[in-house]
Amino acid sequence: MSRCTLRWALPVLLLAALLLFAGCATELKDLRTHPQDISKLKPGQTVLVGQVVLDPPIGKNEQEVNNSIFTSTDYKKPLLVFDDQHVDYSKENDATAHAGNTEYVSHDFGKTFYAPTTNHPAYVNGLYIYLKMNTDKVAYDLRVLQTDLVVDARPGDKAVYIGTIRYVRNDFWDLKKIEVVDDYAREKRRFKKIFGGGVKLVKRLAHRVPASAAR
Amino acid sequence: MHYRVITQAILLLALTVLMGCTYVGGGGTSVDKEVKEVKDAKSSFVFGYVDMADADVPMDWALLKEVGHNQRKEPDHWMRVQDGAFYLENVQAGSYILSEFGGRHWSMFCANTLVCSEPIEYDPGTSMRLVVKKPGIYYLGAFKYKEAKTGFFEQDKFDLKSIDKPTPAEVVQKVLPATKGTRWHDLLVRSSFAKGITLKGGKQ
Questions:
Q1: Is the N or the C terminus of chain A less surrounded, counting Cβ atoms within 10 Å?
Q2: In this predicted complex, what is the ipTM?
Q3: Are A101 and A24 in contact (CB under 8 A)?
Q4: Across the interface, do B125 and A1 touch by the CB < 8 Å criterion?
Q5: Distance between CA atoms of B126 and B99, rounded to whole angstroms?
Q6: Using a CB-CB distance cutoff of 8 angstroms, which residues of chain A are in contact with residue B129?
């Protein structure tokens, strides 16, 4: 719970939120729009394939986001954050002191993403959802769903299917459940249709971060 | 000579106030204390209390916000405030949080002036919440504001501790005068939260 005077706190908070994604983290471009790029992957890059589902979905009046002209990220979409280590966003010091290889994909719920990562393994630390962002009035309202999953992607993998990550929440954004649904057969067909048969889609479903790697 | 000095001092004070005094915008909206009549059979009454004795400002406003998947287009409802009690009539079914409360205080050397009135907002997150299902009287609880320890460069923080005093009946007593002449008055008195209160004339 925080106390603030309007003059300083909101601009500072918004700046911090924008910096996190505009400056310190890398947005992973979706290869669906550039399928030919799958043959141009750099050594050590792996395309993560999966979906994010929210249950119940965001209501029609629940989100009010005006994107900033200063960033290319679409903040109306959820941001799924990958990293090279486990980060617990509920621990404030953990989140602010963290300086890993943070990557994120901004993608519609219920649609498949094809995101080339350099993290091996790739920790799925959180889902960022902006309910409100207004750069004119300098205000934002962000929900962070701590995820605590990891994908055992290996440097030699070209494409890895991580599953459909389903978040179950209540009206107050308490997380009731996170589950990983295996839609591999469907996604394998789609993958072949978009990228051809030259690259194999390996199934390595996201799973809970083991206690030895948890912070 | 004596009067001249006093007159000059008063003039100087008036000038200081007029030229060096600013009202900083923002903050919440204070609304009338008087409750309106029951709107329809689906309406509910929501109330609660925060002891602000340890806060920088008394409570001047409180915002009840509808949240969740079925949130309506206009989710913000400014509550009525009286002596730490906050209340609102004709609340429709839905999920709600007390998303903000606050007040104003006078501060020196702010907003490029000598003195100014600036708002202080308190954001309790989603800790004060309720789900209104059936029409009725809903009590959010009584809480005590406490400053929390923070580091030098950290934002000020606070805790809301649930308290037994005032009791729900004592909070009802604070709210009742504002409901006079409406059916909410009877509904509040007959509610389980009013148990033990004594009305003027000895009626319960």
A1: C
A2: 0.78
A3: no
A4: yes
A5: 7
A6: 172
